[in-house]
Amino acid sequence: MVSKNNSWVLITGASSGFGEEFAHQYAGQGHSLVLVARRMDRLQTLAEALRKQYPIDVVVEQVDLSEVAAVIQLHERLRERDIVIDILINNAGHGLQSPFLDAKLDAVLAMVQLDVASLTAVTHIFAQDMRKQGRGKILLVASLLAYQGVQNFAVYSAAKAYVLRLGEALHRELKREGITVTTLCPGMSDTGFAAAAQQKITPALKLLMMQPAPVVAAGIRALQAGRISVVPGWANKASVILMWASPRWLHQAIFSHIMNA
Predict the structure, then answer these.
(1) Residue 58 DSSP SS3
(2) So what's the pLDDT on residue 122?
(3) How many angstroms from the chain centroid is the CA of residue 197?
(4) Residue range 8-260 in CATH 3.40.50.720
(5) Does 26 qualify as catalytic in the annotation?
(6) pTM, full prediction
């Protein structure tokens, strides 16, 4: 099938949640897609639905991104097919709500591997091609929790802080190469993340919960506009302002209550 425009978007973590929504919205814009995740059945179902609805090409890649060697092999397979990525949506990630010492070490390190090491590897590898082209766009998906350490989300919030700071630095560093880097920092969203993270949904979080579509739309708009970062939703924006304007002990206590009460 022939796409409306000759550009490719690679979306990691594409089988559900934000990744699936990114696929729908970019398909609606006429971009061809490379969908990457571990769950092949869900990827194939999504790809078939997108091909029926939009005149685009969709490539499905089952990849365990926690293995850096698998990221390198993915890049090689795409290169063999003459697929050069114009937009990278670095969305794959994993969270876990648990007291730090109660979590199994393997689970904690797996989170660091996927959320930090693998995201870094994917960004580094595909940005090399973008530099050769003299153009490209990269969206890193962090979290509202990136702005502070959160009780019972110690490793996840630290990992997402890394993503945010990496994105801020690369926004300036890669701009001279013609590459736009934007970081998306969503708050609580109805993506299935909470169930996978064994997260307690408090009454306050229910009030703050956003649907994936407006979050993804905000990320795409910010990337297109060349912004350094974006926090979708007025309540989430107000939360960030509170963090900037209040003592650390105060806003940490407030958000600990919101996330765990």
Answers:
(1) strand
(2) 98
(3) 15
(4) yes
(5) no
(6) 0.89
